[in-house]
Amino acid sequence: HSIVLLPGDGIGPEIVEQARLVLVAIAERFGHEFTFSSQQIGGIAIDETGDPLPQATVDACRSASAILLGAVGGPKWDDPSAKTRPEAGLLRIRKELGLFANLRPIKLFDQLADASPLRADIVKGTDILFFRELTGGIYFGESGSSGEGEDETAFQSMTYSRSEVKRIVRMAAQAARGRSNRLTSVDKANVLEPSRLWRRVAAEVMAEEFPDVNYDVVLVDAMAMHLINRPADFDVVVTGNMFGDILTDEASMLPGSLGMLPSASLGESGPGLYEPIHGSAPDIAGKGVANPLATILAAAMMLRHSMSLNEEADLIEAAVAEVLADGLRTSDLARGDSESAVGTEAMGAAVVAKIA
Amino acid sequence: HSIVLLPGDGIGPEIVEQARLVLVAIAERFGHEFTFSSQQIGGIAIDETGDPLPQATVDACRSASAILLGAVGGPKWDDPSAKTRPEAGLLRIRKELGLFANLRPIKLFDQLADASPLRADIVKGTDILFFRELTGGIYFGESGSSGEGEDETAFQSMTYSRSEVKRIVRMAAQAARGRSNRLTSVDKANVLEPSRLWRRVAAEVMAEEFPDVNYDVVLVDAMAMHLINRPADFDVVVTGNMFGDILTDEASMLPGSLGMLPSASLGESGPGLYEPIHGSAPDIAGKGVANPLATILAAAMMLRHSMSLNEEADLIEAAVAEVLADGLRTSDLARGDSESAVGTEAMGAAVVAKIA
Ligand SMILES: CC(C)[C@H](C(=O)O)[C@@H](O)C(=O)O
Ligand SMILES: CC(C)[C@H](C(=O)O)[C@@H](O)C(=O)O
C-alpha cells in the first residue's frame, strides 16, 4: 500500500508524522508493507512552487492507494489580494481526484464526556455520520462579476445534476444499512431550484433502491436547530457541499474536542483522502503541543475505507480510547489543567505503545 | 398608526390576536390611536384567492405604518407538485416592500435560564443582534434547469451588488453603536465570489463611516461553531440571506425557547414587518395552547422601530419578563410540567393586566 503524505502548513507536519508512526506500528504488528511519500500542498507549496497544488503532487496522489493530509493555510497566505490561496489546493485536489463524498463521523468519546458545550442530557448518545457532497454545488459553480462602482455585482451559481445527487445519496444510504438504517437528507427545497432537484432525485433513489432504509428530509435551517436541540436523533445525514460545510462544522462542536475528529473524502474508485477536520492552528505550530489524535483517527479511516483493513482500524481506535482512559490529554483536551498536558510526540508514542 | 395584521396559518390567528390586545392596552394607557386591519397571506390566501400574497394584501401593507405577521404554511399546502406555496407569499412580501434587513435579537431570559440546551457556563451572557440580508443573495438569484434524464441539472445563483451590501452593513453598524459597539460580518470569502465582494465592500463601509466600531469577519462555517462554543462573544452580526437563514435558526436554539423570539424586517423607509420567528405549528393550531409571547415581543419591536414609541416597547418587554417571573408558562415553556401550563389567552391576558 503506497500512502501519500500531504503535511501542509502549520501543525500539519507534526501531526501527520505521528499518524505515520502509528501506521508503521500497524505495519509491523500485522506484517503489512506501507510505503510513504511526502508531497507539497497549500501555503508551503505556494512558497516553493507558486502553486498550492503542484502537478507533482497530483501525479503522486493519483497513483497512491490513499492520501493522508495534515492541514493547509495560515496568516502568511491570507492577503486578500493574493493571486492564489492555500485553500485552492484543497478544493482542486478534491475535484481532480473526483472525491465527491466527504464522510464526517461525529461521535462522543466517553472519556471526554463533559467536554461538550451542550448539556449532557441533550448530547448523550450522539453518533452521526455526515455525507457532504464535495465536488459540486455552489463551490464549483460558475462565478463572475459585472458592473462598476455602485453597480458592481458578483455571482456564483449553485448547481446540481441528477447523477451528482444519485451517487452521494447511494453512498450514504449504503452506509446507513451498516448502522441504524436511518438516512436524513438536508436541503432548502422551499427556496432553491437545485434543492428541489436534490429532493426529487434522493426520493427516487431511496424508493427504488433502498426501500428498507428509514428516510426523511429536513430543511437546512431546521437541521441547524436540531443539531443543537436533539442531535442524538440522527444517524446518517446527507447534504450538499455548502450546507455540509456549515452543518458538519456546527456538529463538530458537539463532542467538545475538535482535536478528535477525522474525515474521509472518497470517490467512485481511486485513492481516498483522509484528514483531521481541524485547521492548521498557526498559533501553536512548531511548539510540539498539537493534538495528533484526529489525524491518527483519520489514518484508521484510511485503513478501513481504502484498504479494507478493518481489524487494524479497530485497533487504532481502541488504542486512542485507551490512552484517553489512561488520562493522557494534549493541552486542547486538558481544559484548565494544561500543566499536566502531554505534547504531540508523547501522545503519538502512547498510541504506538498500545498498538505494539 | 395603522397596523396591518397578517394572521396567516396554523397558530397565527391565535397569537396575533393576543398581540393585538396588548397593543390595544398600550393605546389605552398612553392615549395613542392604533387602527387595525386584517389581511390574508400564506395557505389561507391560497385557499381563498389562489395566491399566497393577494394584491389587496400588498396594497394594504404598502399604506400601513407597520405589519404584524403570525406564521404561514402547514401540511395542507406541502404537496411538492403544487403550483404555489405559502412561503412564496412571505418571500414576495419581503421583496415587494423592500424589507432588506431582518433583525433577530437572541437574548437569554433570566427567568428561563435553564431552558438552554447549552451548558449554563457557555451560554451565560449571550446577547446577539443578527442582521440578515433579506431581499438578495441566492434566494432571489436567477434559477433554472436544463437537460433531461441523467443529465438533468438545476441551478440558482447567489448574487450580491455593492449597494445591497452597503445598506445592510450600514444599518448593522449603526445598531452596533447603540449596543456594545462590535460588529461581526459573516461570509464565505474563501470560496464564493459574492462573498469576496461582500467582504471588500463591508470593509470599506466600516473604514470610511464607522472607524469607531470594532469590526471583524468570520467564515460561515467557523461562525456555526462559535455560536455553540462561545456565543457570548458576539454583539451585532451581519450576513447574507442564506447564511443568515441558517445561523439565525441555529442561534435561536440558544435561549431554549423558540416561543420567545421576535424578529423585524425593515426597509430603507416604509412599513416594517414584525413576526415571531417560530412557525405555524399546525399540530397545536386551534387548541388555545400556543405561546403568544414571541408575537407580543414582535409588537414591542414594532413600536420601537416603526413608531419610535420606546417607552411603550420597554413596557411590553417588562410586562413579559414579569409574567415569567410570576411563574406563568405556556406548555412549550413548562418542560415536563405541562399540567400547570396556561393557554394562549391566559398568557396574553396576563401581559395585558401588567400593562393596564
Ligand atoms: C478551507 C475551505 C475551502 C474548506 C471548505 O469550505 O470546504 C473547509 O472549510 C472544509 O470544510 O474542508
Ligand atoms: C419559509 C422560508 C422561505 C423562510 C426563509 O428561508 O427565509 C424562513 O425559513 C425564514 O427564515 O423566515
Automatic annotation (TrEMBL), chains A, B:
Substrate binds at R94, R104, R132, D221. Residues 2-351 form the Isopropylmalate dehydrogenase-like domain. Keywords: Amino-acid biosynthesis, Branched-chain amino acid biosynthesis, Cytoplasm, Leucine biosynthesis, Magnesium, Manganese, Metal-binding, NAD, Oxidoreductase. Binds 1 Mg(2+) or Mn(2+) ion per subunit. Belongs to the isocitrate and isopropylmalate dehydrogenases family. LeuB type 1 subfamily. Homodimer. Catalyzes the oxidation of 3-carboxy-2-hydroxy-4-methylpentanoate (3-isopropylmalate) to 3-carboxy-4-methyl-2-oxopentanoate. The product decarboxylates to 4-methyl-2 oxopentanoate. This is 3-isopropylmalate dehydrogenase.
